[in-house]
Amino acid sequence: MRVPDVIAADRCVVLDTVESTNTQARKLLSETIMADENRFPLYVLLADEQTGGRGRLGRTWMSGRNTSFLSSFVVRIPTALATGATSGWLTTIAGIDAVESLRSIAREHGVDPSHIGLKWPNDMYWDDCKLGGILTELAAVHTGLTDDAVVIFGIGINLFLSDRPTRIATSLHRHVPGLPAYPVLRNELAQLIAQRLRVDVQHYCEGAQSSIPRFAKRATALSCTIGRRVSAELPGGTRITGTAIAIRPNAALEIRTNDGDMVSVTAGDVGLIPQAMPGQEPSANAAGSAMPAHSLRLG
């Protein structure tokens, strides 16, 4: 275990190999952060290799050594904000902070940052290719005097992948030349995300309702979903196709269907329909899928 001093967090550990950063963060950090005297503590766990990363629907994947940003950001917030009507914003907030951090790195290397976008609600994209994703989990709830909950944001980003594991996957080094060595880039990215996440989680906790319009504005500005044709599979198996119109105050995605109906999607798989080239018909195959907006899971 290594403990770097460059990360803007109350505690940070770096491990060589883990099965899952979220699982390891729950084991190592959830009890400690619950007892932390800081009002809004932030802990970070980083790993160089992951052998059994967890995604939505129980999916697992492996990440080779020094190829991906493998992280879990751990916060303690009031239980009502972790489980209530506004909790769908937690994953979106983490997505905003990850995309803004990636854009900062691209800009630093002279690359147009607008290629990097947030696909509702939890994926980071370079144009129509996936750079990474987020799995948000509710790790613990304390019902004593504080009535707080521990929330873990598992953030994974492809940095130096030599191969494309799926047809829509990509890696940051394919688009941004001159990136520093893996440990330097990993620490820089962790620092940038931690700085933003600390501020945004505090704003969310101190005034969820007043901060939501600002989060919605940032998410919309970063979105590669709004205005795009999308395909959504809803709970129960119903599939709709239409155009993503807006992000609602509850973090749901509003879609205008092909029939003209307005549907607010709070949970389900949402994929981007590839944009047709001039003279071609739009493809019916959606690119990628998204985690439910309200998919905080108690582990």
TrEMBL record:
Residues 277-299 are annotated as: Disordered. GO terms for cellular component: cytoplasm. GO terms for molecular function: biotin--[biotin carboxyl-carrier protein] ligase activity. It is an enzyme of class 6 (ligase). PROSITE patterns: BPL_LPL_CATALYTIC. InterPro entries: aa-tRNA-synth_II/BPL/LPL (IPR045864), Biotin_CoA_COase_ligase (IPR004408), BPL_C (IPR003142), BPL_LPL_catalytic (IPR004143). Its EC number is 6.3.4.15. The keyword Ligase applies. Keywords: Biotin, Ligase. Residues 7-201 form the BPL/LPL catalytic domain. It comes from the Bacteria. Transmembrane segments: none annotated. CDD domains: BPL (cd16442). PANTHER family: BIOTIN PROTEIN LIGASE, BIOTIN--PROTEIN LIGASE. This is biotin--[biotin carboxyl-carrier protein] ligase. It comes from Pseudoscardovia suis.
